[in-house]
Write a sequence for this structure.
């Protein structure tokens, strides 16, 4: 590992995704995935710290489409979100509920919505990276934690998933720490790509190829991976400072 400050070209993240898939292999992914538990801020909607205003809810690109694909194959959906603004006195539970309702009106319903309202110093078991929210969501859906895939944007989401015994796909944003990217079991460049990975590994994709799932996506330069192109990111590169694992 190199501990230098760098900018990771977007292709490096895509390479990491392909490398992870090649390493783990579809067959190595344990039994059926039945539910997908999604982080809210920075994953489904652009992060607005301590947001209590539904008017500020802005879904990320393709979020509605990504979730529709999961619902279409019968996967159960849950929302798992840390809202420490409540514990810090900066948000009311009602404001958080109003924002969650706006997210559902924009992206469709979740069968369970699990919120940790605690501040970090309260030492609760539900605040991610603790396992509580994932365990509660799984229980609410009547599935086992190992039948769940958590999709989130930071290391706390990865930690919560692993602590609960769930699978996880990290979709980094420019504020995701490089170490969190480097240590996540599976990384996807976009939410839609994360959904494709979930479908593929759950054995529910039509043919299991990004190219077929994404006919309109342009290959990334000459010599594009024959396993298929990944959709290009919104910005040309994902700037990250710090450690890169090659
Ligand atoms: Mg987040
Ligand atoms: Zn909590």
């Amino acid at each position: 590992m190199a501990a230098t400050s760098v900018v990771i070209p977007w292709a490096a993240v895509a390479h990491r995704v392909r490398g992870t898939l090649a390493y783990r292999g579809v067959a190595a992914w344990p039994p059926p995935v039945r539910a997908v538990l999604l982080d809210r801020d920075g994953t489904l909607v652009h992060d607005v710290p301590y947001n209590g205003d539904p008017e500020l809810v802005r879904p990320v690109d393709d979020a509605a489409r990504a979730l529709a694909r999961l619902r279409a194959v019968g996967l159960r959906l849950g929302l798992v979100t840390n809202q420490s603004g409540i514990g810090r006195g900066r948000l009311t539970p009602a404001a958080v509920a109003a924002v969650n309702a706006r997210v559902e009106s924009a992206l469709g319903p979740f069968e369970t919505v699990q919120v940790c309202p605690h501040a970090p110093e309260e030492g609760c078991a539900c605040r991610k990276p603790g396992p509580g929210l994932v365990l509660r969501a799984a229980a609410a859906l009547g599935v086992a934690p190992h039948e769940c895939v958590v999709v989130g944007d930071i290391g706390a989401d990865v930690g919560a998933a692993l602590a609960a015994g769930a699978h996880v796909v990290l979709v980094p944003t420019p504020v995701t720490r490089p170490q969190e990217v480097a240590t996540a079991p599976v990384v996807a460049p976009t939410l839609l790509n994360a959904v494709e990975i979930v479908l593929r590994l759950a054995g529910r994709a039509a043919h299991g190829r990004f190219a077929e799932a994404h006919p309109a996506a342009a290959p990334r330069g000459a010599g594009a991976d024959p396993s298929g192109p990944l959709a290009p990111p919104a910005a040309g590169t994902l700037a990250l400072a710090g450690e890169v694992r090659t």
The two ends are 7 Å apart (CA to CA). The beta strands are 35-38, 76-82, 112-116, 148-152, 167-170.
